Amino acid sequence: MGRAKLKKFADNQASRNVIEPGKPEFETIKGSWRSGHFGNDHPIVLEIGCGYGEYSTGLAEKFPDKNFIGVDIKGSRIWRGSQYAQNNGLDNVAFLRIHVLELENHFEKNEVDEIWITFPDPRPKKSDVRRRLTSSRFMDIYKRVLKPDGLLHLKTDSTGLFEYTLELVQKEVAVKDLISTSDLYSTDLLKEHHGIQTRYEQMFSEKGEKIKYLRFRFE
Prior knowledge:
By secondary structure, the chain is of the alpha/beta class.
């Protein structure tokens, strides 16, 4: 392992806004994100598979009256978002280093107000369907941690993942208030995204890929 990565891991261990294995808060945070970590009663918004944390930090800058938590297993990626938040005084952002399947170990039922899934790995192989972050087993987890009527958003450049997810929520998962578009940038929905782009969104947009988006509430 290179020195740069080791330095990032050491920074994460020293950073209060990174919750990861080995820290006492990692074992006790469930149910106490508002009171224990953020020290307020503001809504909690998750970014699933947050990568470098561009969406979590971008939304945090726009909405200081909400708490944002980026969830990802890659500590070297989380490091960038963590450092940005610290350098810019964003106390309403945290990062949780776990596999998404472990989400319920760290959030109580109905503890979350909103979820964003931003440019996840589309897992195009049929053998990888269960690993897609919008598959039914993940949807079950999101439904349990989300409060009733909490919103779930998906942004992706992948036509395959978008169509798979849209079919899933139309036929298998009971949802309401479903809105979707296969070309976000050509609709009025774009203004709801506040000009925030992830690294992948910017890269794919520059290549001419259309950005797909959907949102809904679970029944």
